[in-house]
Amino acid sequence: MFNILIVGAGVVGQATGKGFARKGHSIDYVDIDPVKVNQLTQQGLLAMLPDQVDWTRYDVIMLTVSTPTINNRVVLDYLEAATLNVGRGLATSDKFTIVVVRSTVPPTTTERRLRPILERAAGKTAGIDFGLAMNPEFLRQRSNVQDFERPWITVLGASDRLTADILTDMYKPFGSLIVNCTPTEAEMIKYVNNIYNALKISYFNEVHTICEHLGIDSKLVGATVARSAESMWNPLYGTRGGVPYGGTCLPKDTVGFLAFCQDMGLDHLMLEATIAANERLARTVAPVAWLDEVEPTAGMHSLPLNKLAALAPQAA
To answer: Cα dihedral sign for 274, 279, 281, 285?
Structure first.
């Protein structure tokens, strides 16, 4: 069991701390907000302000600091300030401590912005003197504690093998699929995860408008497509990037349905963008059809993710 310090005691920090505590780890919280520290203390949790931390106690330090978006830009000021404090703390300890970034940050942030701050402040080298990893959270606002304790996937972007092994052992008891990758890949996975959700919602909102214009039930359409479209029931469908969609159905049906909508005077911006993106890619890369002799779902649970991605179908 490990001594874990949660830096930033908001929703993600508390869900993370409480989840690991239930697995037997020792959890402390640190936050710059005295009110939040007091609230946690009243709950019987060990919480403190930054100047009260004994950094030599901890095996793992998890950064769960807010990274708000202001004027369409991700603000890293709070996270970088917290990272500087952690780096100074590492300078006082002789043990190999793992620093884990759980805040949502743009790709390359952990390696290019946070790592230099830690190394300068600590006078140490990541991957040798301390561990560094990016471990994105996939927690919903209303069920964050339950989501942490019963995750559908755990992504561990570690900068060295020892850190990857330790974090893998920490997360194994939660029972989910564990994906090991680089910090930048982990950061990208988190953003693509959220953006894909936004795209899917936007697409079905446009479908809803078209259905209403036709006087048909959009809920029935959406619920049925969720069971009929291979991209719904085969999670790897379409995830092989770098090639346009081909086959006999997708190219003709996309342009045909867009023309149908335009003839009715309806916008279908998601479909317009899809066709434009595919045509742009098709000018430089030939479409690749799905190999009929390979069953899409065969052996999925026994193959590593990089091999699964290479099998992802692109065409109907």
So the answer is: positive
